[in-house]
């Protein structure tokens, strides 16, 4: 779990789930998508492990604790972290149970069984709406001589401002956040546009083309040679932001 001094850009998740199969699947799957996770099997173990600043808590309502059920744990976590994202996981389909979880402080819920892709889409949607810098998450990303500041919504190549449209900036910010890592077209569409986008993905290609044109131009405008990153296309998958190794 992250401490207040740790400013890792990876969202920190506390997973409280007693089912070994589900817990292991969540822990492995979320880590593979760039999240930092701590997995606990009981509510009391989760409360004891909650010594840092979780961005998100995934909480199973059907916990084995004798002294506190999932609703009690939800209330305690919410009292500790008023601004965190709390998502309850439940096999209970009765409306009254879902309402009780939401009333206890949960922001959202998923009814089991659910797929990892659905959970990831929900997390992306919620995390996009959090204020810049929420939970101590990094807001400025440096790639060579390029600096992308998501709080100020500025992009500088050396000391030169790169003029970007809103979607160009958002796309570059996602790639900069995952510099050196491949990001699928589906993830880019979901994070920059919307996970429910039903329009043509050609809009991604158009935005990338414009972005590829603007970055080198800013490099030329800067005067002295600069270390400008490049966007690599991975055919059939997505794109990756690479540092210019000169």
Verbal overview:
The chain has helices at 20-32, 43-49, 70-80, 95-103, 116-129, 166-177, 185-193, 202-221; strands spanning 12-16, 36-40, 56-60, 85-90, 108-111, 140-143, 146-149, 154-157, 160-161, 183-184, 230-234, 238-242. By secondary structure, the protein is α/β, with parallel strands linked by helices. The strands form 3 sheets. It has a 5-stranded parallel beta sheet with strand order 2-1-3-4-5, sandwiched between helices. A 4-stranded antiparallel beta sheet has the order 6-7-8-9. Residues 1-9 and 131-137 have low confidence and may be disordered.
What topology emerges from the helices and strands here?
Blueprint: E1 12-16, H1 20-32, E2 36-40, H2 43-49, E3 56-60, H3 70-80, E4 85-90, H4 95-103, E5 108-111, H5 116-129, E6 140-143, E7 146-149, E8 154-157, E9 160-161, H6 166-177, E10 183-184, H7 185-193, H8 202-221, E11 230-234, E12 238-242
Parallel strand pairs: 1-2, 1-3, 3-4, 4-5
Antiparallel strand pairs: 6-7, 7-8, 8-9, 10-12, 11-12
Q: What is the β-strand count?
A: 12
The largest sheet, given as strand count, sense and whether it forms a barrel, is: 5 strands, parallel
Contiguous uncertain segments of 5+ residues: 1-9, 131-137
Distance between the termini: 37 Å
Helix count equals 8
How large a portion of the residues is in β-strands, by DSSP E? 15-25%
Q: Which overall shape is indicated by the principal axes computed on the Cα atoms?
A: elongated
């Amino acid at each position: 779990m992250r401490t207040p001094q740790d400013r890792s850009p990876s969202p920190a998740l506390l997973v409280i789930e007693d089912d070994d199969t589900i817990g292991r699947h969540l822990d492995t799957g979320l880590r593979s998508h760039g999240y930092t996770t701590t997995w606990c099997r009981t509510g009391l173990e989760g409360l004891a492990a909650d010594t840092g600043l979780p961005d998100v808590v995934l909480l199973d309502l059907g916990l084995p604790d004798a002294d506190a059920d999932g609703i009690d744990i939800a209330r305690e976590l919410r009292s500790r972290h008023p601004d965190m994202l709390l998502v309850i996981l439940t096999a209970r389909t009765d409306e009254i149970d879902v309402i009780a979880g939401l009333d206890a402080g949960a922001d959202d819920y998923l009814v089991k069984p659910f797929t990892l892709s659905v959970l990831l889409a929900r997390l992306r949607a919620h995390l996009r709406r959090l204020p810049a810098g929420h939970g101590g998450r990094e807001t400025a990303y440096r790639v060579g001589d390029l600096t992308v500041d998501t709080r100020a919504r500025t992009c500088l190549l050396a000391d030169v401002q790169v003029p970007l449209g809103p979607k160009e900036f958002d796309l570059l910010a996602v790639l900069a956040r995952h510099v050196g890592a491949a990001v699928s077209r589906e993830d880019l569409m979901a994070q920059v546009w919307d996970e429910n986008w039903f329009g043509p993905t050609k809009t991604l290609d158009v935005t990338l083309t414009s972005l590829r044109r603007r970055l080198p131009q800013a490099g030329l405008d800067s005067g002295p040679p600069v270390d400008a990153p490049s966007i690599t296309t991975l055919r059939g998958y997505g794109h990756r932001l690479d540092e210019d190794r000169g």
